[in-house]
Amino acid sequence: MSELSITTTQNVNINFTTASIGERVLAYLLDLVIIISYYTVIIVLFFNIFNIENLAETDGASLMAIYGLISLPVVFYALFFENLMEGQTVGKKILKIKVIKIDGYQSSFADYLIRWLFRIIEVTPPLSFIGLIVMIISDKTQRIGDMAAGTAVITLKNKINIDHTILKELKSDYVPTYSLVIKLSDNDVRIIKETYETAVKSADYEIIAKLVSKIESVTGIKSVSSSPMAFVDTIIKDYNYYTQNM
Asked: Which one of 36, 153, 239, 243 has the fewest beta carbons within 10 angstroms of its own beta carbon?
């Protein structure tokens, strides 16, 4: 595993740990189990709906059409789930790994499409060894499809490491209030947080009120909170939200 460092537009460094080859292979095998299970269920259904004699009497073109229709979900499995689940298939979800852009932005459908197209020559058996060899050689554990799409697969088992002087834990369903908070810099938020925490400990509400006024004048934000303390706390959370999701 290696470290993947990304600098956001707000000059916040975010470090990711790339998924290991073992994690990626295991995720692939889990997806393969799902695909085999799908085929098994479909075959059983066909044997229940059509008896063997009827299938034998079916012409070759019709059988090919049936097999092609059955295989469509398998062919598009990775593309469908990575696009639906923002970089994860079911196997990746279980292993807690996902696809991201190496520039820090959320991967798009076009990125997933490129990765999917390259699966044909480096993931699909019997050519799976190609993707494996490339991942071993790559310093970011990327296969050819990742390199072409500008993506990497990271592990989510370790939290994103952001400068701990501004870090604020957020719930997964957190909804930001003030979009103009992005006018602030990393250093601005560090000063705001340090000043705020010091003022709270000493119960210096005058300092908090001055801090609110300064934030409003710099950002153009008008507080909608009933409490100055709630406003500053929201500002810090919103900043973390936007910088973590860029």
From this structure: 36
The string of DSSP letters for 209-239 reads HHHHHHHHHHH------SSHHHHHHHHHHHH
Tokens found for residue 71 = 């295989």
Phi, psi of 117 (to 5 degrees): -60, -40
C-alpha span between 212 and 199 (Å, rounded): 12
DSSP category for residue 96: T
Comparing CA positions, the residue from 24, 13, 22 lying closest to residue 153 is 24
pTM for this model (two decimals)? 0.60
Note whether 181 and 219 are within 8 A (CB): yes
d(CA 134, CA 119): 13
Two structure tokens written together for 188: 């601005």
